[in-house]
Amino acid sequence: MRMHMYVEVLKSKIHRAVVTEANLSYVGSITIDQDLMDAARILPGEKVQIVNNNNGARLETYVIAGPRRSGVVCLNGAAARLVQPGDIVIIMAYAWMSLEEANDFEASVVFPMPGNKLPQ
């Protein structure tokens, strides 16, 4: 009997985005500029892990698409207590795949420019 093994690997990463807002009154999630989401292949509603480089906080939430070319990276709800505007964050999404798929897979990694804009 052949066993199928799966591993969880990094699928998408937005590396060193700047938090533009923290909205405690919102119902939860992270709002990300749709252009950044597209470049990193992150979907609306997708679960992401967020690491705050300024204070070491780590959290998980889901994504809401923000306006294109806005540069928005806004932590909403309880997550807003773990960031301040201006903090540097890394946003990561993961996927389960077979060992064979994982060996050939390359994550989408985006390095935003100032204002959370995409490199030209």
What's a concise summary of this model?
This protein has 120 residues and is mainly beta. The chain has 2 helices and 8 strands.
Structural class: mainly beta
Tell me the overall shape: globular
- pLDDT averaged residue by residue: 96
Distance between the termini: 51 Å
So what's the CATH class of the domain at 14-91? Answer: Mainly Beta
Looking at the structure, the CATH topology of the domain at 14-91 is Barwin-like endoglucanases
Helix content: 10-25%
- Summarize the helix and strand pattern as letters: EEEHEEEEHE
Q: Based on DSSP secondary structure assignment, what is the total number of beta strands?
A: 8
Strand order of the largest sheet: 2-6-3-5-4-7-1-8
Architecture of the domain at 14-91 in CATH?
Beta Barrel
Q: Can you summarize the main beta sheet?
A: 8 strands, mixed
Query: In terms of quaternary structure, what is this?
Result: single chain
Radius of gyration in whole Å, from Cα?
A: 15 Å
Strand content: over 45%
Number of helices: 2
- Low-confidence spans: none
Structural notes for this entry:
The chain has 120 residues and is mainly beta. It has an eight-stranded mixed β-sheet with strand order 2-6-3-5-4-7-1-8. It has a domain at 14-91: Beta Barrel (Barwin-like endoglucanases), CATH 2.40.40.20. The protein contains two helices and eight strands; from the N terminus they run βββαββββαβ. It has helices at 34-40, 99-104; strands spanning 6-18, 21-23, 29-33, 47-52, 58-66, 73-76, 88-98, 108-110. The mean pLDDT is 96.
